[in-house]
Amino acid sequence: MPRILLSGNSAIGEGAIRAGCQCYFGYPITPQNELTEYMATHLSRRKGCSFIQAESELSAINMVYGASVAGVRVMTSSSSPGISLKQEGISYLAACQLPAVIVNMSRGGPGLGSISATQSDYFQSTRGGGHGDYRTIVLAPSSVQELADLTHRAFDLADRYLIPVIILGDSMLGQMMEPVEFHHEVPRRLPVRDQALRGAHGRASRFVKTFTSKPTELEEINWSLFRRYRLIEKKETTCESSLVDDAELVVVAFGIAARIAKGAIRKARSNGLKVGLLRPVTLWPFPSEQVKKTAARTKHFLVFEMNMGQMVEDVKLALDGAGEVGFYGRPGGVIPTPSEVFRVVSREYYQRGLSIER
Amino acid sequence: MKQVYRRPHSLKKAPFHYCPGCGHSIAHRVIAEVIDEMNLQDKVIGIPPPGCSVFAYHYFDVDMVESAHGRGAAVATGIKRAFPQAIVFTYQGDGDLAAIGTAETIHAANRGERITAIFINNAVYGMTGGQMAPTTLLSQKTTTTPYGRSAQLEGYPLKISEMLALVKGTVYIERTAVSSPANIMKTKKAVRKAFQTQIDDLGFSLVEILSPCPVNWKMAPLEAWQWIEKEMTKEFPLGVIKDVTGK
Amino acid sequence: MLVKMIFAGFGGQGVLSMGLNLAQAAMLEGKHVTYLPAYGAEMRGGTANCTVAISDEEIASPVASAPEFIVAMNQPSQVGFQHHLQSGGLLFVNSSLVEAKIVRGDIELVEVPASRIAEEMGNPRCANMVMLGAFTKKTNLVCFATLITGLESTLQSKKKLLEVNKEALKTGYDFCGAEP
Ligand SMILES: Cc1ncc(C[n+]2csc(CCOP(=O)(O)OP(=O)(O)O)c2C)c(N)n1
After folding, report:
1. Is the C or the N end of chain C the one with fewer CB within 10 Å?
2. Contact A115 C33 (CB under 8 A)
3. Please, what sign has the CA dihedral across residues B2, B4, B6, B10?
4. What is the value of pTM for the model shown?
5. Quick count: other Cβ atoms within 10 Å of Cβ B1?
6. Is residue B4 part of a domain?
7. C10-36: per-residue pLDDT in tens?
8. How far apart, in whole angstroms, are the C-alpha atoms of residue A244 and residue A251?
9. With contacts defined as CB-CB under 8 Å, which chain B residues touch C37?
């Protein structure tokens, strides 16, 4: 299939349909409306598929819950304030081990905030987000192509590990257009998950529940969740690294910030500064091992985020004192330029007295 | 020289940001005139929603507090209970009041909260770019009903005012439009009566205002006025829907 | 080589589709490209603009803080964007609607009476394509033929519109050539 020019929001929609997504429930919120609209246009009239514009995000996520119980591939999308509303439902999905894909084209906060790009939902996404002891897989793409690819992977991961998967983008990724290539065709037959509730036809009835009056039973449920989480950490952690092998200073950044950092690093390299990049693709599970391994080469890290410092805590946890971590962040929806980040990178570089290639 | 037209005191000296032909500006002005005439400027607390009117506090020269999407009636309840002397009004779109905020609205109405809801029905979600609202007409095209709203898939236009009329706590509900000078005058009368209902401590009042959104309807402003009168009023007839104020 | 540019004007003047068509052509020529429409509540009913970045290598940021080229289809954009232009950059103005007013000495002005040309062609809505034709001639960022190929694929189903747009592109392209 040839490359086409698509916006991030449309790429997710197309990626989802090609991954066999059968149901989509959403509620309008900027900056992800184009995704909802894409599904209204391309999914709503598809055989066996359903699109609903719900009356709220609370309602939308509970529709997702229902469709997932019934065994189909299902997605919802929103942006930060709406994702806050969905947390209740995400907690229930996690508790019942139900797969679902939840897209957060995040925007500035707190409150109604702004509609421009920030990364201030890192904590909310990687710490579960709702009530209770659970995690969701969090994927952080940094280009439109990657949005398309990771959307497909999100559905696979959700089904394989019976877990809600969050795609954490931002308003710029959603709006911008880039060339995209899709590697999958829409599956002809969509398998229904084994444990789906579709009536006890020909088998004993079963139920899906979260409530229990026995602490020991809930304890075992939590243990089993976390046994699965350990497995996910072992198998699915993904991180891109570039120019790290000879780097004296390693920048850690994710999503759109990582792109900007790459521009800065290119400039730094042409000035003889040996700077590399680690870009976590899965934010949970966080690539702690990779960060730790890098510290065997250099102790010098700089975390760059479009927030006041969230992922930087995971970097510090991973290093456990084994590296010196600087931080640069801009919140509120201001998009830093590569030149700006280059200035920060070189300042750190000189202040730490790192060697320069002449 | 006699002054025949001026900015109401309850409006700040700020130009509206609304699109050409948008009904919000007219509704704002009407409400501000009523606040002036009833001498309520220092008693009113307004609650604008997320929606095109999210910046209403830049225009109204009265106390205002922004609410989360759809939660206006709940916020208004809190204010009124905490400070009953205030004249509290919510200003809500059809997505805000009739979709995400339906629960809050119905329950506030049912408790007979002494608050006034100004309900702007423009048959679409304006701010987010013209998606379907609960009030979207059948076969009306919006960005999320690209093939036209179908009853089978998306249900029917929701008549929230008629529904609320069945709720015991409501005392005055009227539907008006800002689609002609005569209708604008009627809107003003209705807003005045709704505020009076609140002052008289009678119960929940609501004024539904059919309001043009030329940009999202993809019409010229005049066409949009005509569409309200010809099409919208068929589904949403104008007039008093409930009045048990005894006045 | 990385080049960034901004197309700006009133909503309805087709500034977004100028950017989109150029981005499409750049993609067809195998280049890296990003297209970023300006976005926000303040955009509704008012002005519109988009940023295009074209490069031989991965593009870091799709935002242009100092673009090489600016196309101003209306007066407010000329005023608003001129200061952002890179030193030595080119400012294209739709001289039928914009009274060109350069307030700095280090940029070059390209005046194209796009609206008038489009009107003379009997298609006033095509001013954007006239401008894009002129822009392409002057900047040489993509081949004219690729631009046409791209347009053909986007307007596949609208034959008449396609012809009108092609003609407008060509006229704009030739207009720029006619100048010394
Ligand atoms: C929890 C949450 N979900 C979604 C939104 C996005 N949003 C802002 S305004 C709006 C609806 C606007 O439509 P309406 O209430 O009809 O008012 P109008 O803009 O037409 O005046 C939506 C969905 C939000 N702010 N918060």
Report:
1. C
2. no
3. positive
4. 0.91
5. 3
6. no
7. 888 999 999 999 999 999 999 999 999
8. 9
9. none
